[in-house]
């Protein structure tokens, strides 16, 4: 596994933007879940601290680029590779006022938080080290918390595969509940709407043919079908494994039909219907041939509505669409297919991870064409945000009594 090399940040390029880009790229290559948010925090820390030595630069990276203490050793190896050939700026400019660097703070590979403290100039108090956050919270205490607690607010696209596997138990504990509908089957009910004539006559045989009791019946209530359409195109690639894992949990906990699409529609119900999540995701990956390509949501919806949807997968169902709304086809076609879907389905819920961004507005393109036909739009971008998704799936139509 490549963890960087001394030439990645030469002395002649002490540029902040290049530093952030190359360091975060090295972290991701080493398997660390470093996303845009953490990269921005690292850049802000460098600007705020204005580190005079590479040791301080190292601690800026430790404090902002990782949240799991188990990732510290990997980050140290990455930093050694990136900073290995870098001359200390204080030494190169002959800065006699630069704070002394202790041996433990010089970036020795394997040095733990307990041996790493950079002292601020003119004070005997150690600055925040890798094991201590700015607010004084000891980071190793996070190791005591469960994976769900530690990663609940972390966007799925910033999680490593190991961290996603840690969330399987939490996702499997979800109960996907859909609104109930009246089935054709009936059951005895004390306050049923209809008289059960056969049951009443059978009971009358025990009282000499006199119908002393009038027995009633009602139609059984069953949960509505959940139909999931998941976008596995290139723009959704960072979310793909987390969302497919969620689909495995959804399929394991409810009667669901699962489809994937990018440029064409692929049914994944059988692949996600049994086994472990890892095996199910591997089967799904082998089945979907158009992963990480373009997105033709309108064509995929048309194929669904002309095929499985018309045969019952959409009729009266709660339909969940997981997509960021990027459409390489015409948005008009997507709008027409969404109108068809809304007439067939009981409810349409759209899960778009981009809606978590504060400035996001679906004003143009595919999402703008689809939004009028959606009953709910949620982000479901993290474990904590899945509560909003579950609530949207369980919400009945106004005035619907089942």
TrEMBL record:
Sequence ranges assigned to domain VWFA in this UniProt record: 223-392
Pfam families: VWA_CoxE (PF05762)
Record's compositionally biased regions (Low complexity): 118-137
Region ranges (Disordered): 93-141
Name of the protein in question: VWFA domain-containing protein
Species assigned in the record: Pseudonocardia ammonioxydans
Organism ancestry: Bacteria, Bacillati, Actinomycetota, Actinomycetes, Pseudonocardiales
């Amino acid at each position: 596994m490549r963890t960087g090399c001394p030439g990645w940040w030469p002395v002649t390029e002490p540029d902040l933007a290049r530093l952030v880009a190359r360091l975060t790229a090295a972290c991701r290559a080493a398997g660390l879940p470093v996303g845009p948010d953490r990269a921005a925090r690292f850049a802000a820390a460098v600007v705020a601290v204005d580190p005079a030595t590479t040791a301080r630069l190292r601690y800026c990276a430790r404090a902002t680029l990782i949240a799991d203490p188990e990732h510290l050793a990997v980050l140290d190896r990455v930093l050694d590779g990136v900073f290995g050939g870098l001359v200390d700026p204080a030494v190169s400019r002959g800065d006699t006022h630069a704070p002394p660097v202790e041996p433990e703070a010089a970036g020795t590979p394997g040095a733990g938080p307990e041996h790493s403290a950079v002292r601020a100039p003119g004070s005997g108090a150690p600055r925040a080290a890798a094991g201590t956050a700015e607010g004084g919270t000891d980071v190793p205490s996070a190791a005591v918390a469960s994976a769900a607690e530690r990663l609940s607010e972390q966007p799925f696209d910033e999680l490593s595969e190991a961290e996603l596997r840690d969330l399987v138990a939490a996702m499997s504990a979800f109960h996907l509940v859909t609104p109930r509908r009246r089935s054709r089957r009936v059951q005895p009910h004390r306050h049923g709407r209809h008289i059960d004539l056969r049951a009443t006559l059978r009971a009358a045989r025990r009282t000499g043919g006199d119908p002393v009791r009038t027995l009633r019946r009602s139609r059984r209530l069953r949960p509505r079908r959940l139909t999931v359409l998941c976008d596995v195109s290139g723009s959704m690639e960072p979310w793909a494994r987390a969302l497919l894992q969620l689909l495995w949990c959804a399929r394991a906990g409810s009667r669901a039909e699962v489809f994937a699409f990018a440029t064409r529609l692929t049914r994944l119900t059988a692949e996600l219907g049994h086994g472990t999540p890892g095996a199910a995701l591997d089967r799904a990956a082998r089945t979907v041939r158009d992963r990480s390509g373009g997105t033709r949501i309108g064509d995929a919806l048309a194929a669904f509505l002309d095929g499985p949807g018309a045969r019952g997968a959409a009729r009266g169902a709660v339909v969940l669409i997981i997509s960021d709304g990027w459409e390489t086809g015409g948005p008009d076609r997507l709008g027409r297919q969404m109108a068809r879907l809304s007439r067939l389905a009981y409810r349409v819920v759209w899960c778009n991870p981009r809606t978590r961004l504060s400035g996001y507005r679906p004003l143009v393109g595919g999402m703008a064409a689809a939004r009028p036909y959606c009953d709910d739009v949620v982000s479901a971008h993290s474990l904590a945000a899945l509560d909003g998704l579950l609530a949207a799936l369980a919400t009945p139509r106004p005035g619907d009594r089942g």
